[in-house]
Amino acid sequence: MEPTPRVLLLNEMANPEWTSVPFEGWAHARALAAHVDGHLVTQIRNRESILRAGLREGEDFTAIDSERLAAPLYRIANRIRGGEEKGWTWVQAASSLWYYEFEARVWRRFGERIRAGEFDLVHRLTPLSPTTPSPMARRCAEAGVPFVWGPLNGGIAWPPGFGSVRRREREWLSYVRGAHRILPGHRRTRASAACTIVGSRETWRQLQGYHQRCVYIPENGVDASRFHRSVAGPVRGPLPVAFLGRLVPYKGADMLLEAAAPLIRAGRVVVDVIGDGPELPRLRALVERQGIAAGVRCDGAIDHARLQHRLVESRVLAFPSVREFGGAVVLEAMALGLVPVVVDYGGPAELVSEGTGFAIPLGSRTQIVERLRERLAALADDPGALCRLGERGRERARRLFTWEAKARQTFEVYRWVLGRRDSKPDFGMPLPDPTGAGPRATGQHLPGTTQREG
User: Fold this and answer.
1) I want to staple 247 with a disulfide (CB 3.0 to 4.6 A). Which of 122, 184, 279, 339 is the partner?
2) How many angstroms separate the CA atoms of 217 and 389, rounded?
3) What's the CA gap between 330 and 348, in Å, rounded?
4) β-strands 121-126, 61-64: how paired?
C-alpha cells in the first residue's frame, strides 16, 4: 500500500466565503484532503473564514501575514483601474509583486521543515496566473523536494474587433502583458518545477519548451453539493434561456439580448439575465429600447445558495463571452442539465464537447449575434434535443469536473511526480498541436471534441 503523500499546499487565495479564484483555491484544497496529508498555507485575510469552516490553525492551516506590502499595492491598483469591476490586469500585476513577500514569509516559516523532508512535495495552487513567478520552486528543487504549480491559466488575447470592449474594461496593461517575462524568477520557476498543471490550452502554448513536465487539467470545477438539482420535463412554451455572470462588457450579455430580441418578440424565447455589474443599467435600457421587457428578467445578482434553484428554471445557458479564461458558470449550468451555448474562444469552449452543447465560431460582434440567434432559433424549433444534450452534459460535468474528480486527477499528478506511476497522467482532454495546427488529443479520448458550427 502506498504511503499517503505529505503535501504543503501554498494557497494564498483560499477562502470558503468568497467567489471566483479564492473559492476555487479553497474547494480544490479541501477536495485534496481526502487523498493527502496536507497542510494549507494561505494569506491572513482568509484566516477568519477558514476558522469558521472548522479548520484548526497550526494543525490544518497556517495564515501568513503579508499585508504590509499587499494592502497598499491593492489600494494603488484599485485606484488605477478605476473601480472594482474593471482593469483586472492591474490587480494581477500588483499581486505578482506582493506574492514575493508571501512566499518569502512562507519559506521563513517552513523552509527548514521542507529541507528536513517533512513534506513529500510542495504544491502552489494559487495564484492561477502563469505571470506570477514562484521563488519557492528553486528553493524546493535545491532541497530535493518536488514542486508542483497550477492549474495555471491566463493570457488569452483580446480577439480582433473588440478593441472598444477592451477599452471599456480599462485593460490598458494587457497591451504590455509580455513584460512579465522580466520578473525575477520567471524562467527559474518553469525550469525548477517538477510538474506544471496547465488549466487551459492557451497556457499550454505559453509553456512551449516545458511540455514534457506539463499536465493539462482545465482550471475550473463545480461543487456537486451546491449544484445537485436537475432540470426536468419537456420544454413547454417559449424556450427559457439564462445568462449567468458578472455584467461587464466582455461577457457579452448585450449580444445575447440583441440576438434573442426578435425571438422574444415572436414568443419563442425568454431570457433570464442573472448577475450584477456596471453593465446592468445599460442592459435594462437595451431591453426597453428593443421592446422585449415582457420576455426578459434582469433583476441583478442572487445569493449563491439560491443559484441552482434559479438556473433550473431555464434549459439553455447562453454565455457569449469573448475573453474568458475559465468558465465556471458553464460547468455549474451543465451540472444541472442546462445546454451551454458559448463562443468558441477561451475556457468555455474547452469545457463543452460534442453532444453536450454548442460553441459558435468567434467573429465580429455582428457575426456572433447572428450565429447566436441562429442557434437559439434552432433549439427553440427542436426543444426535444435539449433533454438528451442536457443529460450528457450533466454526466460529463460530474465525471470530469467536480472538485472531487479534480482532486483525483491532481492526486495522480502527485503519484507521477513522486515516482509512484510509470507514465505522465493523461485525462484524455484535447490539447493544441505544438506546431500550432490546432487541437489534438494526447491519449484516451473523451467522447467527441468541441462541437463547431458554420
Assistant:
1) 279
2) 23
3) 7
4) unpaired
**Alpha helix positions (H), 33-153:** 47-52, 67-81, 88-115, 135-143
The mean pLDDT value for 11-31 works out to 96
- Are 334 and 399 in contact, with CB atoms under 8 Å apart? no
Find out whether 323 and 357 touch, Cβ atoms under 8 Å: no
How far are the Cα atoms of 82, 111, 122 from residue 114, in angstroms, in the given order?
41, 5, 8
Q: Which residue has the higher pLDDT, 81 or 190?
A: 190
Residues 275 and 93: their CA atoms lie apart, in Å, by 26
pLDDT digits (tens, 9 = 90+) for 240-255: 999 999 999 999 999 9
Question: Is it the case that residue 450 has pLDDT exceeding 60?
Answer: no
Surface-to-core class of residue 208, CB atoms within 10 Å of its CB (0-12 exposed, 13-18 middle, 19+ buried): exposed
- The reply to whether the predicted model has a pTM over 0.85 is yes
Residue 109 has pLDDT above 80, yes or no: yes
Q: Give ∠ CA 19-282-21 in degrees, rounded to 5.
A: 15
